[in-house]
Amino acid sequence: MLLYILLSVFVIFAAVVAIRTLTFKPKAQPAVSREEVTFDRDGAVQALAELVRCRTVSHEDHAMEDDAEFEKLIAKLPKLYPNVFEACRFQQLPDRALLFQWPGRTAGDPAVLMAHYDVVPVNEDNWEKPPFEAIIEDGVMWGRGTLDTKVTFNGVLFAANHLIGQGFRPEHDVYFAFSGGEEVSGRGAPNIVDWFEKQGITPAMVVDEGGAVVEHVFPGVRQPCGLIGIAEKGMMNASFRCVSAGGHASAPKPHTPVGILARACTRVEGRPFKAHIEGPVALMFDTLGRYSTPLYRMIFANLWCFGWVLDSLAKSSGGEMNALLRTTVAFTQMDGSAAANVIPPEARMVANLRLNPSDSVASALEFLRKTVDDGSVEIRALVSSEPSRVSTTRCPGWEKVSSAVAQTWQGTIVAPYLMVQCSDSRHWGRISDKVYRFSAMDLTAAERATIHGNNERIRLETIGKAVEFYIRLMGKC
User: Fold this and answer.
1) Between 301 and which of 24, 165, 197, 376 could a Cys-Cys bridge form, CB atoms 3.0 to 4.6 Å apart?
2) What is the pLDDT of residue 253?
């Protein structure tokens, strides 16, 4: 009798899994227009080269910055994009914030297109080509900022310059909002959002850097994926500190401050935060999982019973999939005694956490303290920001962005996703739930690895595609 019951349960279970898998078919994707977009692609390349040649390097210590380089870039803009300055209202806000308003034909909530024009520092000795000369060889432009994010800065302005020259005017206002301090969490972007708040303006759509068109990033999916971030993780640098009376290393106690912190480190790494398959991640799985190979499609169609498989794979391998599912902890710094034979009176280590939208700074600190379970280890937040607001995918703004992606990179599966890095777009969450994070490029894994690294470079065709994307997007505004 018991065997019969167990067999019946198994048959029912197998039938449910099979039916859910068979009905887990691709959803409708945005309609794709076959209309070609023509513009001066060589001119777009030359305009980006002019921007790259400005050493707009931002530093935490502002004394290390070269203000003249930032001013040089701003001074170039009227010459590079003359139609924009003729048709748009331009103002500079504090902290290197630039804001353009392109008046629309009728009243209505505007679109905001963002980018930042500062770049991270470089170690020029490790580059194969000079990082600020925009050298073009073999269909590639070399330079810091070519990918992050002068390509989209140029894409926005060159697209607008082209459309204005063609006599186009958007239905509603379009704003171009640029920050000169994103890489150091500067105040430029918050100042722009403050301005919108004071004016009582609520954007219908905000588009900033984020996802891209990528391949081989989702299990079992062979087609290119256009990932649009609808939220981004929070960030916290957590300090772990342990003190002692110090002393000579020849007669140590069973555990020194360094040893105590090492134990705390292994406890945290051995007990990852809980996985959350919900919100942006659930939407991504529900979209891309339908295009997976049969085994993966079965898993994604039945996460109610196979979610643990995905969780186990993510925990064991780490990387991008693991970062999508949970709050991650990366221990990055540790210091103790100044001498090898002295027990440190104080030892400290720092971990960088990226907070899942289901967690918060407070809940993450509580989890760390419970996991370490040692009163001699002081754990506190140094720098932190909460996870962003989650944007809706049920509005015209999402439809405009997703259709512009599909039209520009035909054959691409468009899907929402959770951005694991931080960007200026998080500041807009206080006035809008229609903030979308998409870097208008198709990028290989090798190209993505040069962002913030050595030998950053971009294919010339990618520069043109960025402009094409914004021409299509602005045409819908």
Assistant:
1) 24
2) 86
